[in-house]
Amino acid sequence: MVTLDSRLVKPGDVFVAIKGEKVDGHDFIDSALAKGAAGVIDGVEELQARAKAYRQTLKAKVIGVTGSSGKTTTKEFIKTFLGCYGTEGNYNNHLGVPLTILNAPRDAKYIVVELGTNHPGEIAGLCDIADPDIGVITSIGTAHLEFFKTQAGIAREKGTLFAHARDFNVMPQGCCVADILREMSAVRRVEVGPVKTLECPVPGLHNLLDMSLAYAVARELGVSEDECRRRLVGFALPGARWRKIQAGAVTYIDDSYNANPDSMKAALDAFKGQTVVLGDMGELGDDSARMHREVLDYAYQKGLKVITVGPMFAKAELSRITQGEVLLKGSHAMHLSMLIERKN
């Protein structure tokens, strides 16, 4: 195994020493070697170079998955349908992708690699390492709009995956700015709608669409519908993704791993209860205030009781109040007075 965490090193593993903002991995090289590490990779550049070289020795088909929302869900469904190795959790950045490649079994038939980005050019760098045969784009939304400025900019960044894939590409039917994705797709393209013959084990139309994209990949690769259905038994998403937690008489649905306006609305559509807790969404740039208001309005239109966490949603709440008196009371550390300053 190749790992960044010296605490996880076992005899024969390779330790990656990277200098981070808070911790320098080089300080733990001796500890990793003492635990039996077979070698040390020094820094990000060597990690990526090693992964790129190893990828070229593999006979596996690599399936790259990206999108504004639904990357991890779609990736998990593909792993399930193909019964294959792939990205663990959300290891989808400049460190996670090379680690995924380096930890792939040499005899793997398929490898599913999740590709994340929040700045222009990152998908190209990740594709250079993963060298995908198949591309899957789950959605083009407004996540990280602060850095891409427009949805067209997001589409071109995500579409870089389609430009690299060799075998075929998969995208949802009716995808926003689909023309951009089509023009970037140099190989056969499969456009997918909701599958009606398989029951999705996770509620919500957005999850059904993610499963449908994964199912399209599996069918293209020769997996039967019956086999896909059998492999769905016991399916569960990793981490804080629609995870149910019972606390006395209350059932909490923890879907708090990440959020953007599209995934927020999709989760509200899937939710069947009455009370929601909405936390601020990051990296939305100049449109942040408007998008927080839209999500809040969407929740209220559904008749939901809303609890907000964070200054952006609090500001959106205040913008709904047009007359009367409002009391702001809390610890000084919460800086509630800033909400009034921002409102004015």
Brief account:
With 344 residues, this protein is an alpha/beta fold.
Structural class: alpha/beta
pLDDT averaged residue by residue = 92
Q: Termini separation (Å)?
A: 55 Å
CATH topology call of the largest domain: UDP-N-acetylmuramoyl-L-alanine:D-glutamate ligase
Q: What shape does the CA trace take?
A: globular
Number of helices: 14
Q: How much beta, percentage-wise? A: 15-25%
Strand order of the largest sheet: 5-6-4-7-8-9
Radius of gyration: 22 Å
Poorly predicted regions are none
Keywords, please?
single chain, 344 residues, alpha/beta, Udp-n-acetylmuramoylalanyl-d-glutamate--2,6- Diaminopimelate Ligase, Chain: A, domain 1, UDP-N-acetylmuramoyl-L-alanine:D-glutamate ligase, Protein-Tyrosine Phosphatase, Chain A, 6-stranded parallel sheet, 3-stranded parallel sheet, globular
Write the layout of secondary structure elements.
Elements lengths: L1 E2 L10 E4 L11 H6 L4 E4 H13 L5 E6 L4 H12 L2 E2 L9 H7 L7 E5 L7 H9 L3 E4 L7 H4 L2 H14 L3 E5 L5 H7 L3 E5 L12 H16 L4 H7 L11 E5 L2 E5 L6 H10 L4 E5 L8 H14 L3 E5 L1 H9 L17 H7 L1
Parallel strand pairs: 1-2, 2-3, 4-6, 4-7, 5-6, 7-8, 8-9, 12-13
Antiparallel strand pairs: 10-11
Would you give an account of this structure?
With 344 residues, this protein is α/β, with parallel strands linked by helices. The chain folds into 3 domains: 1-44, 3-Layer(aba) Sandwich (Udp-n-acetylmuramoylalanyl-d-glutamate--2,6- Diaminopimelate Ligase, Chain: A, domain 1), CATH 3.40.1390; 58-231, 3-Layer(aba) Sandwich (UDP-N-acetylmuramoyl-L-alanine:D-glutamate ligase); 243-343, Mur ligase, C-terminal domain (Protein-Tyrosine Phosphatase, Chain A, Alpha-Beta Complex), CATH 3.90.190. It has helices spanning 29-34, 43-55, 71-82, 96-102, 122-130, 145-148, 151-164, 178-184, 205-220, 225-231, 261-270, 288-301, 311-319, 337-343; strands at 2-3, 14-17, 39-42, 61-66, 85-86, 110-114, 134-137, 168-172, 188-192, 243-247, 250-254, 275-279, 305-309. A 6-stranded parallel sheet has the order 5-6-4-7-8-9, sandwiched between helices. Helix 3 packs across helix 9 (205-220) and helix 12 (288-301) crosses helix 13 (311-319). The termini are far apart.
